[in-house]
Amino acid sequence: MAFKAFLIAIIIAAAVASAVATDYMVGDNAGWNLEVNYTEWAKGKDFRVGDTLMFMYNKDYHNVAKVNGTDFQQCNASNASNLLRTGSDTITLATPGKKWYICGLSDHCSKGMKLVINVAAALEAPAPAPTSAATIFCPLKSYAWILAAVLLTIMASSNSNKL
Ligand SMILES: *[C@@H]1O[C@H](CO)[C@@H](O)[C@H](O)[C@H]1NC(C)=O
Ligand SMILES: *[C@@H]1O[C@H](CO)[C@@H](O)[C@H](O)[C@H]1NC(C)=O
Ligand SMILES: *[C@@H]1O[C@H](CO)[C@@H](O)[C@H](O)[C@H]1NC(C)=O
Ligand SMILES: *[C@@H]1O[C@H](CO)[C@@H](O)[C@H](O)[C@H]1NC(C)=O
Ligand SMILES: [Cu+2]
């Protein structure tokens, strides 16, 4: 019974979290290519931990290299920590701070296929230090746990009614 309630709590927490997180299609309908000004695209967007970036592109011509600030400035994808090339890549923004992405093929980066964003802490979470499992779930909106507690109470009482 407690385990069932725990599962329900996790499902609710996940649902609430995904309702709060935003999925960004990089370049919107135009996708990831040479046609979009990604500085313009990122302008005014409030990127948060837990949000996702979706890169959609023709994998014969483009890829997505996650780089640092230096390699971003120099359009150097030769030692990218993360090279994505499926044509449909989703990146979850896991930590706050600046994130840099460039296309590593041909001279696309210097032609403008580069995106830098600034990721802020998750919404409504005062960003506790990620030290324990509890911090993974607790900023996931405490009202999910209140809901779970209510459910648990209901389940417990319906159980005792049968006795
Ligand atoms: C892209 O947009 C930014 C911000 O509006 C602008 O400063 C920049 O010149 C543009 N880049 C190109 C290549 O047009
Ligand atoms: C690109 O990065 C690689 C690996 O870090 C480095 O060896 C190379 O010198 C860099 N190239 C330029 C032009 O910065
Ligand atoms: C950026 O990454 C390159 C490897 O690609 C590394 O040589 C360089 O020291 C890094 N720069 C910073 C500021 O971390
Ligand atoms: C390339 O990246 C790897 C892994 O991050 C690192 O061990 C290596 O030293 C880097 N090479 C250069 C030339 O920066
Ligand atoms: Cu490209």
TrEMBL record:
Residues 22-121 form the Phytocyanin domain. The chain crosses the membrane at residues 142-160. It comes from the Eukaryota. Residues 1-21 form the signal peptide. Pfam families: Cu_bind_like. Keywords: Membrane, Signal, Transmembrane, Transmembrane helix. Gene3D superfamilies: Cupredoxins - blue copper proteins (2.60.40.420). PANTHER family: BLUE COPPER PROTEIN, PHYTOCYANIN DOMAIN-CONTAINING PROTEIN. This is Phytocyanin domain-containing protein. It comes from Penstemon davidsonii.
